[in-house]
Amino acid sequence: MTVKDFGITKDGIATKLYTLKNNNLEISVTDFGSTLVSIVVPDRNNKPTDIVLGYDDVSGYETDDGYYFGCNVGRCANRIARGHFVLNNTEYNLDINNGPNNLHSGLNPYSKRVWTVENQNDTSITFSLESPHMDQGFPGALKMYVTYELLEDGFKINYNATPDKDTIINVTNHSYFNLNGEGSGTVLNHSVKIYADSFTPADETSIPTGEIEAVKDTPMDFNNFKTIGQDINKNYIPLKYANGYDHNWVLATAGDVDRTAVRLVSPETGICLSVRTTEPGIQIYSGNFLDGTIKGKGEIVYNPRTGICLESQHYPDSPNKPQWPSTVLRPGETYQSVCIYGFSIAE
Ligand code: GAL
Fold first, then answer.
1. Does 64 sit in the ligand 1 pocket, CB within 6 Å?
2. What are the C-alpha distances in Å from 115 to residues 124, 168, 338?
3. Does residue 324 have its Cβ closer than 6 Å to ligand 1?
């Protein structure tokens, strides 16, 4: 483990960048937001390649305006319709920050706070954050833990929390992957396989309709490898509404972390990423809103579709969809969510 200064926040807090390394990969994370800043893996010619978008120091993450590079999004990731839900007969209202809806829990995200380092060693680091009762509008205080742990050929993110009152929780990591190397053009040539027979169609504001729809014979079918670019511009309503891929797939793995949920492969570098998760769904977002106005690492401009997010999570708007896997967490229960990223090189 190496530790470097990552810059000082506007409030004068000194942040750090922690790097964990083994023979196969290196990841760097900061206590600002517990954010994943880089993943460096060798390509097929052994060239070290940083495969996630981000910024060079804390000021970029602090001023980030709605991109959430590498963030752990909580307390409830994705959209909540009209920023409103009912729990135990009580109505709760959250910030409206995305059209008519709440996105990624609103204007005071976990990703813009400085987290505490609870534990660190050569292979793992645990951050924690105290989230009080009514933080972002959610009931119940909880202490959120995020652990990054190096594995031989990848790494694991583990989320944990226990509330003191009934609450809602759904945490995910929002890294934008580009297996050609961050800052090197679009991800449209990446091949993807998603182990899912259905997805949750949504309205124009990306709120699921509540239906579960088969992917068969639609552009949403990635059961056989195909490139992200192959169908992305098809005249298909879900793609038009979302301006590309930005949908939740209902994973056939159904929370089995031993089974692969998604594979992503770059034909250029040969880098392959596999994702496994305890979560029932994955939001796959093809960076449609990266608009060429943001400068990321090394002052490189990030244009549309230059990164893809693979956000393991419960389905969007679950607090308003009682028929779906529940995001309610009660005192005495422990929230645990695991996402494992594995790396290899294509033959
Ligand atoms: C994703 C979401 C996208 C977009 C992005 C942040 O999780 O699905 O619609 O809002 O976050 O820019």
1. no
2. 16, 21, 19
3. no
Q: Which residues are catalytic?
A: 174, 311
Does pTM top 0.70 for this prediction?
yes
Cβ neighbour number for residue 272 with a 10 Å cutoff:
19
Q: How far is the CA of 120 from the centre of ligand 1 (A)?
A: 31
Position 117 pLDDT exceeds 90:
yes
Task: Return the structure tokens found at 34.
Answer: 């517990």
Cβ of 77 below 6 Å from ligand 1 = no
Please list, in sequence order, all residues whose beta carbon lies within 8 angstroms of the beta carbon of residue 237, skipping any fewer than 6 positions away: none
Amino acid (1-letter code) at residue 53: L
pLDDT (tens digit per residue) in 245-303: 999 999 999 999 999 999 999 999 999 999 999 999 999 999 999 999 999 999 999 99
> DSSP string spanning 137-189?
G-SS-EEEEEEEEEETTEEEEEEEE-BSS-EE-B-EE--EE-TT-TTSS-STT
